[in-house]
Design goal:
globular, 261 residues, 10 strands
Length: 261
């Protein structure tokens, strides 16, 4: 016999929601500006074969207060971003820097001279490239790299943009904070040949056009972000918007009933 308890509570298991952080990295381009995108391997359990922005899950170590000695920011002007991110703001910023370096080879940090890390010297680029596999394997942490290279993570350079929660019904769900940052001028980025198999600098407009032509696969959230980004005519306009943003939307799409399987 069913009890009132049985009627009030569904028996389907609750899907866990993983916190994640993603960075939209931008650089100047002749027409407007370009963003860095990675193609995930077809073997991936999530977003296989699709083009995405660098990013990934927030790990427990990303919340370590030990990072406070190796970060610059958030600034006073970023306090609205801190408030929107909540008590775990540190973890989201650290995760997006760690994942951007691990997946894309872009290090958003300041060198001891106070300038953003430069890869103009091939020896420096090669040394940093050597950190990526150990970081991916877990034998080296971002904190280890900061200590080895005396880095200050460029939190002040990376601006919280918005939040997207994967809809109920998907096999994997993420609560993702999206950030915007300008690419360091001397860093070009590259895929890691593990989780990602291709990389490209591309305008939002071209990415959307190629997606419409079915030659550039995108998740819905990526497409939605690109459509909004395409409204900014220049890199300067996009960065100004991200720096001065005061309100931060949270998107919680709902799947059509026929897709909830």
């Amino acid at each position: 016999m069913s009890s009132a308890f049985d009627l009030d509570f569904p028996r389907a298991p609750v899907q866990p929601i993983r916190p994640a952080a993603t960075v939209i990295v931008v650089r100047e381009a002749p027409s407007s500006y370009e963003i860095f995108m990675l193609k995930r391997t077809s073997k991936a359990s999530f977003a296989s074969g699709m083009y995405v922005f660098p990013g990934g899950r927030v790990d427990s170590d990303d919340h370590l207060h030990a990072y406070d000695a190796h970060r610059h920011g958030p600034t006073d002007g970023q306090q609205p971003q801190v408030a929107a991110l909540g008590d775990e703001w540190r973890g989201f910023w650290i995760a997006c820097i760690r994942e951007t370096f691990e997946e894309a080879g872009l290090m958003l940090a300041y060198a001891p001279d106070g300038e953003l890390v430069s890869f103009a010297d091939p020896a420096v680029q090669e040394r940093f490239a050597g950190y990526r596999d150990p970081l991916h394997d877990g034998t080296l942490s971002l904190l280890d790299i900061c200590r080895k290279e005396n880095l200050k993570l460029a939190v002040d350079h990376i601006h919280f943009y918005n939040r997207f929660v994967t809809p109920l019904g998907r096999p994997r769900r993420f609560d993702t904070r999206f950030f915007i940052a300008a690419a360091p001028e001397s860093q070009r980025g590259s895929h890691d040949e593990q989780e990602t198999v291709d990389s490209i600098w591309i305008t939002p407009q071209e990415a959307l056009e190629r997606h419409a032509a079915k030659e550039f696969d995108l998740m819905n959230v990526t497409r939605i972000q690109l459509e909004a980004l395409a409204q900014s005519p220049t890199k300067a306009a996009l960065l100004e918007m991200s720096v001065n943003k005061q309100r931060f939307s949270t998107m919680r799409p709902v799947l059509p009933k026929e897709n909830k399987r």
